[in-house]
Hints:
Shape of chain A: globular
CATH superfamily of chain A: STAS domain
Number of strands of chain A: 5
Helix content of chain A: 40-55%
Distance between the termini of chain A: 38 Å
Oligomer: homodimer
CATH architecture of chain A: 2-Layer Sandwich
Amino acid sequence: MERIPILRMGNLLLVTIQVDMHDRLAMTLQDDLTARIVKDKARGVLIDISALDIVDSFIGRMISNTAAMAKILDASTVVVGMQPAVAITLVELGLKLEGVKTALNVEQGIKLLQRRED
Amino acid sequence: MERIPILRMGNLLLVTIQVDMHDRLAMTLQDDLTARIVKDKARGVLIDISALDIVDSFIGRMISNTAAMAKILDASTVVVGMQPAVAITLVELGLKLEGVKTALNVEQGIKLLQRRED
């Protein structure tokens, strides 16, 4: 599979990361996502990482960069579904998901984004 | 990755299939999904297959079986995001997604499931 699907829900976009990220896939995702934010006039992006057991510096940077791109296009990014072990590793490795908000799950993430709209 | 994440949205569950299915992954998904339907008291299941370029008889049967299991647990299943080429192939191969409703995208699928609730 060469693309990560982007699902639209109202004025939000949902991306579920399930596969190991590599350079090209990350770039394709960023291209697709920025295009979709503009096309769908999205105000928020939810990135679900519940399937990821490991978030290394590459994925962390990819998520931060994606959030930065979304922000320029006036969309907020929320990372949802982070596993406890991933949170521990991020802190232990000193990795920061800069410019990214987090929420426990998709529902909480949607609420967070909708609050920001009000 | 050994699991396909199941996302909860209200009383609906969303599954995005992005990776090649094999026996064990399909069984894990069915176990997880039936458990989640009961735990979350879900009334509907959305299966997004927009990332799939090919739906063969194995995946078709897996989707039908999953829908049948969900139905016994009183949850309706809607397949969303089918690519045009997949629809063509399904018909040409004579594969039927029995017991499964389809919708163009997640939003339409949510509307379809909510109509059934009313």
